[in-house]
Amino acid sequence: MQLSSLMDRFNEPETLKMAKLGRKLKAKGIDITDLSLGEPDFDTPQHIKDAAKKAIDDNYSHYTPVAGYTDLREAICTKLFRDNGLRYATDEIVVSTGAKQCIANLVLATVDQGDEVIIPTPYWVTYSEIVRLAGGTVKFLNTDFDSGWKVKPEQLEAAITPKTKLFMFSSPCNPTGAIYSHDELSALVAVFKKHPDVIIMSDEIYEHINYGGKHESIAAFPDMKERVVVINGLSKGFAMTGWRLGYLAGPKEIAKACDKLQGQFTSATSSITQRAAIAALLGDLKPSLSMVETFRQRRDLIMRLIAEIPGIKCHTPDGAFYIFPNVESFLNKKTPAGKLINNTNDLSMYLLNEAHVSTVSGLAFGQPKCIRLSFATSNEKIETAMKKIKKALEALSG
Ligand code: PLP
Question: Does one domain contain both 155 and 251?
Fold first, then answer.
């Protein structure tokens, strides 16, 4: 079977691949502890589920406008003003089947063959692949442990060329949990001001999962709203990964283009999810806040346990629910079976097969010295997994 050349241009998400491998081992009866997936283990809050049930009974069963119901887009505008001080009109909002589709819409709507897209590493797996799918050229901007995994303004300045179309980043960041402070964002804004044609994608899907100060959007800085596209959604902050709803807020022209693309690909996301989203965005935020409190306790637990493993360096994440430890001291060591650990892919596979813990190699996020561990799971599972990881790492030699 000859598939299209498009299929060779991009890769399957590594995060989903690891989850698939973990499930395969589980099906064989092996007790796998999964620290690979990026989703809250909580149930969706009751008031949101009730809104969905009511929507079914009220017969919200028809096609909706491609960009989402108007009252949902109004609710999103209300949220963006309430939480971020951003004033948008409903025709600047497009609701999609997850934030992932918003990102795909944005890239396909703005990036042409040969356009450069700057992506700081480590980055969320999908960014680079969508750019490649669109025919754009990915330009990685490497950050490191010492910079707290954040881009410095001089680095950004040096990376921008006349071909730069888009800059894509997340804060809070998946996979590092790093959050850009007001001053750090301000320094990047000063660089962007010198390059007015660069569009900025600000992925704020982990907005609510913030252990420090208040979330800040780069769109809220003076004169930035006209060129920033904010990506957000319900998956992480409301424990609604399976419901599939994300939204994009940005300049009208871009929103219109995304609406046009989506009209051919999928049309709108589910009508029932859209009704539930209004309840999520405008309703009681206490259940979300209580999830964040639990994530904070788990973060503290996993940080305590990782500190007990010699040879690992790890920042305490300020947001999201991942730690991204530097494990380079375990590379080039041998497993008890005599296999060489060449890279973090090998290390991640070793941890899966020997410790029965599923993690994601940093290579998937453009960082070859780290692995990603999700702490969106119970204390008990975190304790079991970390004990097994410690034992497996101690068994490496050489
Ligand atoms: N952006 C980031 C940084 C993510 O980590 C994820 C999901 O893992 C998404 C976007 C996509 O979220 P959604 O479930 O809304 O498609």
Answer: yes
Which CATH number does the domain housing residue 353 bear? 3.90.1150.10
Task: Give the residue, out of 173, 205, 206, 234, with the most ligand 1 atoms within 8 A of its beta carbon, to mutate for a pocket test.
Answer: 205
Distance 351 CA to ligand 1 centre (A): 25
Tokens of 254: 């871009």
pLDDT, tens digit, for every residue of 2-26? 999 999 888 887 777 777 888 888 8
Residues 64, 143, single domain; the answer is yes
Q: In ligand 1, which atom is closest to the CA atom of 170?
A: 3
Q: Of ligand 1's atoms, which has the minimum distance to the CA of residue 100? A: 16
273 within domain boundaries: yes
Residues 136 and 73 in one domain: yes
Residue entry with tokens 């375990």: 330
Query: Is residue 228 domain-shared with residue 299, that is, in the same domain?
Result: no
Q: Which of residues 266, 282, 298 is at a domain's end?
A: 282
Domain range for 321:
5-43+287-394
Instruction: Say whether 228 sits in a helix, a strand or coil.
Output: strand
Distance from the CA of 114 to the center of ligand 1, in angstroms?
A: 26
Q: Structurally, how many domains does the chain consist of?
A: 2
Q: What is the pLDDT of residue 158?
A: 98
248 C-alpha to center of ligand 1: Å?
Answer: 12
pLDDT tens, position by position, 294-336? 999 999 999 999 999 999 999 999 999 999 999 999 999 999 9
> What strands, in cross-sheet order, belong to the sheet with 246-249?
93-96, 246-249, 228-233, 199-203, 164-170, 116-121, 137-142
* Alpha carbons 100 and 16: distance in angstroms, whole number: 14
Cis amide leading into 196 (omega within 30): no
Q: Does residue 340 lie in a domain region?
A: yes
Q: How far is the CA of 381 from the centre of ligand 1 (A)?
A: 23
Note the pLDDT tens digit of each residue in 200-248: 999 999 999 999 888 999 999 999 999 999 999 999 999 999 999 999 9
* Ligand 1 pocket: which of 129, 207, 209, 235 to mutate (most atoms within 8 A of CB): 235
Please state, in angstroms and rounded to a whole number, the distance separating the CA atoms of residues 256 and 244.
21
**pLDDT, averaged across the chain:** 96
